[in-house]
Amino acid sequence: MKTEILPKNENDALQKEIISKIRDYINYKNLEPGDKLPSERKLSESFEVSRSNVREAIQTLEYYGLLKSKPQSGTFVADIGSVALNGMITDILRLEKPDFKSLVETRILLELKTVRLAALRRTKEELKEIEEALEAYSKKVMNGEDAVQEDLLFHLAIAKASGNSTINTFMLTITPEIITNFAKYHVCDKNIAFIGIQEHRDIYEAIKNQDPQLAKEKMKVHFKMLYQYCYNIKD
Amino acid sequence: MKTEILPKNENDALQKEIISKIRDYINYKNLEPGDKLPSERKLSESFEVSRSNVREAIQTLEYYGLLKSKPQSGTFVADIGSVALNGMITDILRLEKPDFKSLVETRILLELKTVRLAALRRTKEELKEIEEALEAYSKKVMNGEDAVQEDLLFHLAIAKASGNSTINTFMLTITPEIITNFAKYHVCDKNIAFIGIQEHRDIYEAIKNQDPQLAKEKMKVHFKMLYQYCYNIKD
DNA sequence: CAAACCAATCTGGTTAACCAATTATAGTAT
DNA sequence: ATACTATAATTGGTTAACCAGATTGGTTTG
What we know:
homodimer; mainly alpha; two-stranded antiparallel sheet; 10 helices; DNA-binding
């Protein structure tokens, strides 16, 4: 087989094509939950692609929980019926890269929840971690330095204290993209940062006092500017 | 080097160890955004693990947006400062597998948002897709068949119509796990399903009439049982 | 007749060799 | 001294060979 280096976009397109072929195969053969897929070798042969490409595609579907591969045994359809499997793969193929607005919108939604949960559930240790993140942030701002990273770490500390591992994971996945875009669009410039200290402190105090309602209110205040800012950005 | 097959858990542990070593290296060398990591070969040699293990670890960090590898060039630190990078890798290493309650809690949060957004933003095409999902669900229930899959696809259709690609992705990632656990805990048994038809129809109508507040209310009603059910499950 | 055993085969995972694009280096001409 | 070019080394990606555990079918044994 001929070696060929593909640009990342085409590589993604290839992987999507393979995923789509796997879906077609599952449909054609009417595979049920727990059924075994053909081996990676056979798939790569019948799809006329390399085995590593097939492996990548399988890994992606495994990430979404649709397949499950067992060492020295085979790759199996997850405990999901063919209807859901089919619909979900179709959805995955259509997924587009998240835009900035959708990221911010989601972040606000998640954080209004985490801050309430953190106020309800935080342990003493988690509270201390939040406090430390707050101090690190304040120190930077007082020195006139850029503190976008410390800002985000404060919010991540709250997410960790929410006791909801799913939301925590989601927050982690969107944070880098947010940081990048913040720098790009010059959100959160230094003039805003000074106000940010007090806002952060208010949030911290509400969590400390285990007042979920107040915590949410303070977080809303904190997001108000961000909200306005982001909805004014050109696409 | 000796070939050794590892159980999945140990493999995960190994990957975490490698990730942690990458973090340490970045700290030790004070790598800034855009700086280049040593080549995969050098890393695998200095960590005394195979190159494919290193590649896996890098891919994971790439998924979280912390690294960026360019073909025939190198692997680079993303446009994130070392503080955030360090904090986030530490968080990632601590991540635990999501529990069922956290999944349901998150799903409810996300869906109360998607249903409102869908009522505001849905196109005619998206509305039609929701309707088709609703019909497929109703038909199954009327025939006395299990309709968990069609149920979830209805909700995914709403997520798609929300116009928020981030939330849409999140919904896709948690759905398989939810389906599996539903089957495991016998949530949504047939006796509930008949009520479900009307509840789904109410939600659909609210979205059709572009009434976000009503849509949210109806979704809340729909989740009421689920909510109670899930918080009574033993851990 | 059923259970236990064994060897051939098949599997996903791992390793090592290979590829071509990129980057660094040395040399040459201006 | 500088700008440009050719060449060698380096890189992430790809392919193919290899590994050992799992499966399977047939045979033996109680």
